[in-house]
Automatic annotation (TrEMBL):
Domain Adenosine deaminase residue range list: 12-330
PANTHER family: ADENINE DEAMINASE (PTHR43114:SF6)
SUPFAM superfamilies membership: Metallo-dependent hydrolases
Endpoints of the signal sequence: none
Name of the molecule in the record: Adenosine deaminase
Record-linked Pfam families: A_deaminase
Underlying gene: add
Length: 365
């Protein structure tokens, strides 16, 4: 018989929103700093990781960690170490498929060198652990639109089977997605898949609308303020636009420090109630102190999902993965059979508190 935690660990899952360097272990950060003679105390390293955050100390968080880590990774083997450890952590929580964001414009190495290094590690992990990993080069929107076009041109000049499409991340406040239309148009013209971080830090819902209508995004990362526009929300639900949502997103934890307020008001709950196609994701694994199990525990314990809802989220992840339909059909059959077999071994199904339960099941997605 299985506990709920054991069940959530073993069920197969797809992870579609994971920043590669957001999964760097703190011990690895310290090792790399030592390797290159970069001053970094353990206390300073801890400031990037929420697991070590204290009320009287500032937590720098994921974006600050990316700013620190990209200059720190100076050789291909550094990327390979990180990728190997990240995939090891992922497979230990039942993740079978990952699409990683990384930022080519931020690295000290060439696009080709990093792509080749990561691809080699992915191939080894697939043979060793039966976990598949792919890349989504992502625009750093804190840089210029011209830099974004340059990144896409690198992708065009060096196509690779492990590279699926493009994304965009970093702080959105002064860099709405329409600024980068040329990069997206160029990527689309060359058959690359399209996703983008939109409306993340409480920013306006029009960023989602612009991403869909101007840039032809297939998937939205975050997108939480979409619920402030009922018409747009209904449209996204009707069309089945996939949204990768992050239960550990720090913005809402700061907005609603009272846990009950956070549970009640979190937009992920509202998005599910509206029938949107959502896929739980970890974002910055170690920086956010989450993983592939904790992510789904929050969906159940805080957002009121039952196991039918969890099952549907996993199906949503398969649907939204950028892989051939024939492969996804295999996953639907085998993963869901595995899910159902493991579910039958549960000691008991989770009891959802009445104030949380909203009957998230297959028909509501």
């Amino acid at each position: 018989m299985l506990t709920l935690s054991e069940f959530l660990t073993q069920i197969p899952k797809a992870e579609l929103h994971y920043h590669l360097l957001g999964g760097v272990r703190m011990s690895t950060m310290l090792d790399l700093a030592k390797k290159y003679g970069v001053p970094l105390t353990e206390k300073e390293a801890k400031s990037y990781y929420r697991a070590y955050a204290h009320e009287n100390e500032v937590m720098k968080g994921g974006i600050a960690a990316l700013h620190f880590l990209y200059p720190l990774l100076r050789e291909a083997v550094d990327y390979q170490r990180v990728a190997h450890e990240v995939l090891e952590d992922a497979k230990n929580t039942g993740i079978r498929y990952v699409e990683f964001f990384w930022n080519p414009n931020d690295t000290n190495l060439s696009y080709q060198a990093v792509t080749d290094a990561l691809a080699k590690t992915f191939e080894q992990a697939e043979q060793e652990w039966n976990i598949s990993a792919f890349l989504i080069p992502s625009i750093n929107r804190e840089k210029t639109p011209e830099e974004a076009v340059k990144m896409v041109q690198w992708m065009i000049d060096y196509p690779h089977e492990r590279v699926l499409g493009i994304g965009i991340d970093y702080r959105e406040d002064h860099a709405p997605i329409e600024n980068f239309w040329k990069a997206y148009r160029l990527a689309e013209q060359h058959g690359l898949r399209l996703t983008g971080h939109c409306s993340e830090f409480g920013l306006h819902w029009r960023n989602v609308e612009t991403g869909l209508d101007l840039l032809n995004l297939e998937r939205i990362d975050h997108g939480y303020t979409v619920i402030e526009n009922p018409e747009l929300t209904a449209r996204c639900a009707r069309l089945g636009i996939p949204f990768t949502v992050v239960p550990s997103n720090t913005f809402f934890m700061k907005k609603w420090p009272n846990h009950q307020d956070w549970q009640k008001n979190h937009p992920i709950r509202q998005m599910a109630k509206a029938g949107m196609k959502i896929i739980p994701a970890t974002d910055d694994w170690h920086m956010h102190d989450t993983n592939g199990v904790k992510c789904y525990e929050v969906m159940i314990e805080d957002f009121g999902f039952d196991l039918d809802g969890v099952r549907q989220c996993i199906l949503n992840g398969i649907d939204a993965a950028w892989q051939p339909e024939s492969l996804k059909q295999e996953w639907r059959y085998h993963w869901m059979k595995e899910f159902d077999d493991l579910r039958a071994q549960l000691v008991e199904e989770p009891k959802i508190a009445p104030e949380l339960y909203t009957q998230y099941g297959p028909k509501t997605f």
